[in-house]
Amino acid sequence: MQTILSTSYPVHFQETGYDAINEFIAKNGFKTVFILVDENTHEYCLPILQQELEVDVTFEVIEIESGEVNKNLGTCMSIWHALTDLGADRKSLLINIGGGVITDMGGFVASTYKRGIQFINIPTTLLSMVDASVGGKTGVDLGVLKNQIGLFADPEMVIIDPLYLKTLSEIEITSGMAEIIKYGLTYDKSLWHQFIDENKEVDLVGMIHRSIEIKNEVVLEDRLEANLRKILNYGHTIGHAVESYFLESDHKKTLTHGQAIALGMITEAYISSKLFDFPQEDLTLIKKIITRIFGKVPVLKEDYEAVINLMKHDKKNVNGQVNFVLLEGIEKYKIDCKVSVDLIKESLDYYLAE
Fold first, then answer.
1. Which of 28, 40, 61, 68 sees the fewest Cβ atoms within 10 Å?
2. What is the DSSP secondary-structure string of 287-316?
């Protein structure tokens, strides 16, 4: 597949990527290269990368515990200490190999360590391939509030290899589908149409490439999310709040990001139908298909207030006002939309209804 050129870095695919990383390491004369992993990517993905590395340098592996719950400044501190103890300097390179937690946090760690060292992202989950590793956003959570601490910083390159997807469970693959559906509903309906026929086998590799193209097109036009890039948050205003609520609750099972965004896309499509006459037939189809893929999140009416309170911390908010990305139609988006609390609750009722 053809390399995609982003703001200041390339997104390479498969062998092209490994050739590029070997050339980059050799050209820059790194004595030691640091690799950030969690326990899963250490076991299943690092061996794949090691087989492709053909440079005579020392590699130091830094392992953290997996999961969104560990995407915080405490974990960053442990990584910064490890880099320091292992002798990292301002000319060091950090390779982040893992899902969105690893690439988000690894990019943040690298871009702040000694005021910034170079880093490379190698996403290993579908979600991180089509979303988290591309676009220059880095960051960590603040408590249960997602991505509240971070900055924009570009990697030297991103390497996409679908071979890593073979190490994932089905639920992790499904989680990543939510972001592809988001691109389809907001930007390219041909992606959305691939989900409509449940008997048709999807071209997953092609969908990955097209999703990255879309995100890159959006980022090139609006890197700092002043306007167009906000469309990438469709489904995320309610979705992130639900995800955070389930993460902090002692009585709820933690959701995948995709499950939460799936709920968000259905509820925000419902709100779109009420505010902008988003077609009823499209709303019905969105609910049918997304529910078929993701099932239903067991949110309860008594959860509504807590979820709505968490929305007040959404990064798109301005002057305390919650801002939504909504739809007038497939590929027809509206940004900075104001929604009443009553309509948010009504949308959750619609989601829960059979």
1. 28
2. HHHHHHHH------GGGHHHHHHHHTT-TT
Residue 317 is predicted with a pLDDT of 64
Instruction: Return d(Cα 116, Cα 343) in angstroms, integer.
Output: 44
Tell me which of 3.40.50.300, 3.40.50.1100, 3.90.180.10, 3.40.50.1970 is the CATH number of domain 4-167.
3.40.50.1970
Q: Mapping DSSP to helix (H, G, I), strand (E, B) and coil, where does residue 321 land?
A: strand
Indicate the residue type of 234.
Y
As a whole number, the mean pLDDT across the chain is 94
- Which residues partner with 94 through β-bridges? 34, 119
Phi, psi of 228 (to 5 degrees): -55, -40
Q: For the chain, give the longest Cα–Cα distance.
A: 62
For the segment 77-126, what is each residue's pLDDT rounded down to a tens digit? 999 999 999 999 999 999 999 999 999 999 999 999 999 999 999 999 99
Instruction: Encode pLDDT of 138-161 as tens digits.
Output: 999 999 888 899 999 999 999 999
Residue with tokens 């959404």: 314
Extract the tokens encoding 119.
Answer: 């880093």
Q: Six-digit token pair at 233?
A: 């948050």
Strands (E), the chain: 4-5, 10-13, 32-38, 58-64, 93-98, 118-123, 137-142, 145-152, 158-160, 324-329, 332-337
